[in-house]
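dumping this here before i forget
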Amino acid sequence: MLTALLSVTVLGFLLGMRHATDPDHVVAVTTIVSQQRSLAKAARTGILWGIGHTATIILVGGAIIVLKVQLSAIPVRVGLSLEFAVAVMLIVLGLLTLAGGERRVADSTARPLTVGFVHGLAGSAAVATLPQVALIPNPGWALAYLGVFGLGTIVGMLLITASIAAPSLLAVHKFAGLNRKLRIASGVASIAFGLFLAHRIGFVDGLFTSAPEWTPH
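structure:
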């Protein structure tokens, strides 16, 4: 039993690290990191994003586990609305980045925490209903699994932000004016990806149609 729990825990940590690489996660933190000029601050952004994300996963995902909520019991439009909130957040994040000028708005603690929290809302149902969680009969251990999953996400996002920031900071030091171009490029990319997600969730998945379909991811 202990061996099985250890295996599931290690798997949860690795899956958490992989979860950090989801495209919408990477786009969001890249937009924030593009405004920073320190590797330490970029790493801090990744950690804060991961903490916000993990907090939501444990709160919402934990409630799903403790109350034994089945995935089919979650209204489709509720699930799609949570994912649509991520799309809106990416668009707003991109607009704020473009309008930010040279202000160090990305140095705040609130922004990466909030972004991570919103991402966590959209992914809580998917994480809480993973097959690995279903294998854990004890709700306490299942909650612990979510915590380990979240820790893996924090570590993964820390590595991602550091790997994104390192080459861009090196380039900025060598080429004057590149920081502004990187900021604009990341802002535009965030808006474009947000609009893409909004269209997919709103019309392809059907949030704004009469026949919505939702598969948590």
